[in-house]
Write a structure and sequence with these properties.
Elements lengths: L1 H33 L6 H4 L2 H29 L5 H22 L6 H29 L5 H7 L3 H12 L2 E2 L2 H23 L10 H28 L2 H23 L1 H5 L5 H27 L2 H7 L3 H12 L6 H19 L3 E2 L11 H8 L21 H6 L1
Antiparallel strand pairs: 1-2
């Protein structure tokens, strides 16, 4: 009798353990799908994440340099956005396209053009027209509209990355993007309170449409950039961008801005402003692929949301703009969102992984057994997380 009671008791305990294990397994799968790991501070704030944040802010400072130089050129009645872009693409052509010309074998520029010329033509066209559209939008709509609508590049990038790069996001990534956009909202609110709603209102619908168009084109260009630097090489991307960017912007310059260029009264001041703009853009294009390879195009664009804030800070000292504590708050909120996005890794779905509705834990378990090109694209870690496939499957 005692042995029967003991057996029943053991059976009851085993049943409870199984139920508890099943519940823990379901919770583990949900946490994995959402990206809600139990991180400690050492896991999140790694040296790699710090480097990503610092380089991202350097890129924002470079964009700030282009914005300040454009503002001074506007004060000098110089409105030649295509000429400014042409100088940047010409520098890329002189440096990176020349490097491609000196390579031998399949990496030579002739071999690249034979097989992929039309792809790089589309990429260059998207990049050139994106730069032109957003500058042109300032003639028709307000600064506030441009700052808000320009953020459209982030969701477009996420959609394009999902379908073409097979990047998979978790709940925490969408929350992080929302946090960054809240920071942008705070910045725009500070602009309105400070009376900085600059720009034209001659054709708001056209201006807003140009901003949205530029956001889509930037997203296309950035997705092409991420694929190229992660699967081919940074030199190839920059060399092809220099070649086709110079060709397209040169043709567009000759068609649209011949009179505007002829009307420029060249002096040392104007020449230096063009030089500053071209060098900042050249440095931006040269360093951005490095950060994209470390993280992703989406993460880089989130870090670039602070560029408007740096421009505002420069405007306080150079153009006597009004300061607001909301600017500081906006910077902090955007940075927090950026850290959230990079603290949890995204992952790439395998081409043969059927539906995107597969269980995330099973996909991850498969990915860890594959080559490094299909591994986690960790932006905030010095190395991938230590969970083994068996540990993940146990979730």
């Amino acid at each position: 009798m005692t042995s029967k009671c003991s057996a029943a008791a053991y059976a009851g305990l085993a049943l409870k353990d199984m139920e508890g294990h099943d519940e823990e397994r379901l919770c583990g799968k949900w946490r994995f799908a959402c990206g809600l790991y139990s991180y400690n501070w050492r896991d999140v704030f790694t040296w790699r994440l710090l480097k990503t944040i610092l380089i991202g802010q350097v890129l924002s400072l470079l964009i700030c340099g282009t914005a300040v130089s454009c503002q001074y050129l506007a004060y000098a009645k110089v409105e030649t956005p295509m000429l400014q872009s042409f100088f940047n693409y010409a520098l890329l052509l002189l440096v990176y396209t020349t490097i491609l010309c000196t390579r031998k074998g399949d990496r030579n520029i002739l071999q690249i053009l034979k097989t992929k010329w039309w792809k790089y033509l589309v990429m260059g066209l998207a990049d050139v027209e994106a730069n032109y559209a957003v500058v042109k939008a300032y003639q028709f709509t307000t600064l506030t509209s441009i700052q808000l609508l320009d953020c459209f590049v982030v969701p477009v990038l996420m959609v394009l990355s999902w379908f073409f790069l097979k990047t998979r996001y978790r709940l925490v990534h969408f929350v992080a993007v929302g946090v960054c956009l809240l920071g942008v909202g705070a910045m725009v609110g500070a602009d309105i309170l400070a009376g900085r709603d600059q720009g034209s209102t001659s054709d708001v619908v056209l201006g807003d449409g140009l901003v949205l168009l530029s956001a889509v084109l930037y997203a296309v260009s950035n997705v092409c950039q991420e694929y190229t630097v992660k699967n081919l090489s940074r030199i190839e991307f920059l060399g092809m961008m220099g070649l086709f960017g110079t060709l397209i912007s040169g043709i567009q310059l000759a068609v649209l801005e011949t009179r505007a260029v002829a009307a420029i009264k060249w002096d040392f001041h104007i020449s230096m402003l063009f030089a500053v703009y071209a060098l900042c853009m050249y440095a931006l294009y040269s360093f951005m692929p490095v950060v994209v390879k470390m993280t992703s195009a989406t993460a880089v664009n989130l870090s670039l949301l602070t560029a408007d804030l740096f421009s505002l800070f420069c405007g306080i000292f150079l153009f006597h703009c009004t300061f607001s504590t909301l600017y500081i708050m906006s910077f902090v909120v955007i940075t927090v969102g950026f850290v959230m996005f990079n603290a949890v890794p995204t992952y790439s779905a395998l081409p043969e992984s059927g539906s995107s509705e597969d269980d995330p834990a099973e996909v991850f378990a498969d990915l860890t057994a594959e080559s490094s090109s299909d591994h986690l694209l960790s932006a905030g870690k010095d190395a991938p997380r230590t969970e083994t496939p068996a540990a993940v499957a146990a979730l």
